[in-house]
UniProtKB/TrEMBL annotation:
<feature type="domain" description="ScoMcrA-like SRA">
    <location>
        <begin position="44"/>
        <end position="135"/>
    </location>
</feature>
<dbReference type="Pfam" id="PF26348">
    <property type="entry name" value="SRA_ScoMcrA"/>
</dbReference>
<keyword id="KW-0255">Endonuclease</keyword>
<dbReference type="InterPro" id="IPR036987">
    <property type="entry name" value="SRA-YDG_sf"/>
</dbReference>
<keyword id="KW-0378">Hydrolase</keyword>
<feature type="region of interest" description="Disordered">
    <location>
        <begin position="191"/>
        <end position="218"/>
    </location>
</feature>
<keyword id="KW-0540">Nuclease</keyword>
<dbReference type="InterPro" id="IPR058712">
    <property type="entry name" value="SRA_ScoMcrA"/>
</dbReference>
<dbReference type="GO" id="GO:0004519">
    <property type="term" value="F:endonuclease activity"/>
</dbReference>
<protein>
    <submittedName>
        <fullName>HNH endonuclease domain-containing protein</fullName>
    </submittedName>
</protein>
Length: 218
């Protein structure tokens, strides 16, 4: 698979067959999969998988979260995927993160992540590696379902309308030319800020400045 051809949408769910087609490789069943770009075998990338029903109870909510390394028996070691994931903190490489909720068959693609830290921790009487991961910027906003305020009422919407007077353009133009682009009442004129515009064209006056006079002059 060429990384340049990969098209994944953050937030979308993919079945195993769809991921196999997208990456042109099968899933190995490991939490950390080491893969290679077909264009450049020296370019590696990782696929991370996490499940709600897994043995580590990874906390994958929020932009920054904790991911436990691979190895379910005995103390974990910095080999295989754990070693690549730890090295990614200093030498970043593409890391695609997928999560599957309990009872679901599809994997949600949660975007690419960066490794911020790698720490040893005790878990179930053995030593494991905990990786602090940070999601990269995504095109779709993520919502933490556990903190979403679903009980808030939807804001009230009020429909409004606006009206305005539509003036006849020919009449406006004729009036402006008749009165020399000056106010009919006070004779004042306003000019635009463009010095390259001819004086007659740079004057500004609104059509509302003109009005019909009665014979009495008012």
């Amino acid at each position: 698979m060429r990384l340049a051809d990969l098209e994944l949408e953050p937030g979308a769910a993919y079945e195993a067959a769809e991921l196999r087609e997208a990456f042109d490789r099968r899933m190995t069943g490991r939490g950390i999969e080491i893969c290679y770009d077909d264009d450049d075998r020296r370019q590696r990338y990782l696929r991370l998988f996490s499940t709600d029903s897994g043995p580590y109870e990874d906390d994958v909510t929020g932009g920054q979260f904790t991911y436990v390394g691979e190895g379910q028996r005995g103390d974990q070691t910095l080999t295989g995927g754990n070693r690549y994931l730890k090295n990614a903190a200093d030498a970043p490489l593409p890391i695609f993160f997928f999560h599957r909720e309990a009872g679901e068959s599809a994997w949600e693609y949660q975007g690419q992540v960066d490794v911020l830290a790698c720490d040893e921790a005790e878990h179930g009487g053995r030593t494991v590696y905990q990786f602090t991961l940070q999601r990269r910027s995504e095109t779709r906003e993520r919502i933490d379902r556990t903190e979403a305020a679903a009980d808030l009422d939807a804001p009230e919407r009020v429909e409004t309308s606006r009206s305005r007077v539509v003036r006849s353009t020919p009449v406006v133009r004729a009036l402006k030319e008749r009165y020399g682009h000056a106010c009919q009442l006070c004779g004042a004129t306003r000019r635009r800020g463009w010095t390259s515009t001819p004086p007659s064209a740079s004057r500004r006056v609104g059509a509302a400045s003109f009005g019909a006079r009665r014979s009495s002059g008012r």
